[in-house]
Design goal:
It contains five helices and no strands. It is mainly α and about 130 residues long.
């Protein structure tokens, strides 16, 4: 019975810990906006797919994927890492960023699928002629 009391006291003490004691990272002065993070992560996804499909095309055209991405968005790897770390400590915001990336990818997937269907239709009509 004494052991049970000690266990209950310990759990009570842990339950009383103030959530404000949990450290949250400070907002970086140059924090990348959520919208821009969506664009960056979206582009990262496309680049990773492109590297997986045919990395040699990128290399033959002198494109270094990470460098291209950072130049395109006028950021550096440190800024991205700090912003990514900040957002990853707020799971709701981080999930929202990735949900928006997913929505953007799905929209473009539909556009590409429609374009492929149109090309197939046009090439079918041209082959009949």
């Amino acid at each position: 019975m004494k052991k049970l009391n000690y266990i209950l006291i310990i759990f009570s003490l842990f339950g009383c810990v103030n959530n404000s004691l949990i450290e949250h990272p400070n907002v970086p002065e140059d924090l990348i906006s959520q919208e821009k993070m969506v664009d960056i992560i979206y582009d990262m996804t496309l680049i990773n797919v492109a590297k997986g499909v045919n990395k040699s095309i990128l290399e033959n055209n002198g494109i270094i994927p990470e460098q291209y991405l950072f130049n395109k968005h006028s950021i550096d790897s440190t800024l991205f890492a700090r912003s990514n770390e900040y957002y990853s400590n707020d799971l709701k915001t981080y999930q929202m960023i990735y949900d928006n990336v997913k929505i953007k990818l799905e929209k473009n997937k539909n556009i590409i699928s429609d374009s492929i269907d149109i090309l197939k239709q046009i090439s079918g009509e041209l082959s009949k002629k």
